[in-house]
């Protein structure tokens, strides 16, 4: 059974752009679409919206209206709705676990306090076991026109970026787009060299050829699995976030990996994902490393 693509909505322009993006992606992948809203009862002091029953009815009507809009644009798309009362981050993480992809607006401050506030969005991205896509309010369908790329970051060993690469290739194949795989590298401190690493570098002919070989090896299984997807290999010296953003001009989607990192103040999404989410103009997919 194909996992659904789930979009979180709260009536803001950001969430409606996320819903439109999710609907188009669900059509491409022949997957059902779920339209989800997490809410909490607001007292009269916070929102002049009546009693609990009135607020719940208003929320359901808003969600169902959004679902009808995308169903009208995509008549063959299976669309379902879900309105759940509770902690926004907890609800969305549960919904994400049952989905192929969770799609959210990049930020939002709607009349009903919802999950698109920055702190909740960060919790969802950091805690989700499934890919989370962030979409800005200005995103349009024509930004997915031919010639644009799915950009994906690759780092470390092949297995370190396998989930991000897999998501990028699947998305590109569904769209008929190409993949630009980016590997950024920096000069390591002298003390980081070991006899073994020095031998590998010598055999590769230097640092940059070594990095190019590493990227090619990471891409090899995905080229074989998706032979129809055109691939551009991009190796550049610099910080990963800066290099990714420098090639984002023709990107339909930016894909970055995320390792689970927990600190005393909770889960963190990592500096590369954090930087790309704040500065990329295209939608960004954050894919957890298994």
Molecular shape: globular
The biggest sheet amounts to: 10 strands, mixed
Q: Return residue spans where pLDDT drops below 50 for at least 5 consecutive residues.
A: 108-117
Tally of contiguous helical segments: 9
Strand percentage, roughly?
15-25%
How many strands? Answer: 12
Q: Which superfamily, in CATH terms, is the homologous superfamily of the largest domain?
A: HUPs
Average pLDDT confidence is: 84
User: What's the CATH class label of the largest domain?
Assistant: Alpha Beta
Give the ordered list of helices and strands.
EHEHEHEHEEHEHHEHEEEHE
Distance between the termini: 21 Å
Q: CATH topology of the largest domain, which one?
A: Rossmann fold
Rounded to an integer in angstroms, the radius of gyration calculated over CA atoms is 21 Å
Q: How much helicity do the residues have?
A: 40-55%
User: Do you know the CATH architecture of the largest domain?
Assistant: 3-Layer(aba) Sandwich
Strand order of the largest sheet: 3-2-1-4-5-12-9-6-7-8
Protein name: Universal stress protein
Family: Belongs to the universal stress protein A family.
Domain UspA: 1-136, 151-288
InterPro entries: Rossmann-like_a/b/a_fold, Universal_stress_UspA, UspA
Keywords:
41% helix; Rossmann fold; two-stranded antiparallel ribbon; 290 residues; single chain; alpha/beta
Structural write-up:
Residues 1-136, 151-288 form the UspA domain. The chain has helices at 13-29, 52-73, 88-97, 118-127, 162-175, 195-204, 207-225, 240-246, 271-279, and strands at residues 5-8, 33-39, 79-85, 101-105, 132-135, 149-153, 178-185, 231-237, 251-258, 261-263, 266-268, 284-288. The chain is built from 9 helices and 12 strands. The longest helix has 22 residues, at 52-73. By secondary structure, the protein is an alpha/beta fold. The chain is globular and about 65 Å long. 41% of the residues lie in helices and 23% in strands. It folds into 2 domains: 5-139, HUPs (Rossmann fold, 3-Layer(aba) Sandwich), CATH 3.40.50.620; 145-288, 3-Layer(aba) Sandwich (Rossmann fold), CATH 3.40.50.620. It has a 10-stranded mixed β-sheet, with helices on both faces.
